Amino acid sequence: MCGPQAGNDTRMRVTLVGTVHAACGRANAEELLAIIQRLAPDVIFAEMPSAKIDQYRDGSHGNLESIAVARYREGRPAVAVFGRSSERVVTIVA
Questions:
Q1: Is the pTM of this model over 0.90?
Q2: Residue 89: which of 43, 24, 45, 35 has the closest Cα?
């Protein structure tokens, strides 16, 4: 037997976490880090141009998201972080 019945569930879970870009009350790097740790992602997609993704990965970009992601990756260097490949942002309205 294959698939979920055999314990070989290969489905992926995608979770979207919306944030503000500057700390405000409980919207801060520590709280975001706690959320990320609870979700335990293997991959993080950031609202960041690909050209600046290294600053995002190491936290030097300075926004709360990059600080939280850098702290999360300290013990998990294999976690992949990707930025968008274009400055153009597409909005999808459903």
A1: no
A2: 45
